[in-house]
Amino acid sequence: MTRTLLSLMLAALTAPTVLAQVTSPDLTDPEVAHVAVTANTIDIDAARFAQTRSHNEQVLAFAATMIRDHSAVNQQASALATRLHVTPKDNAVSQSLVNGATDAHNVIDAARGPAFDRAYMDREIGYHQAVLDALDNLLIPTTQNAELKKLLVDVRPAIAAHLEHAKQVRAGLEATR
Question: Is residue 13 helix, strand or coil?
Answer without folding.
Answer: coil
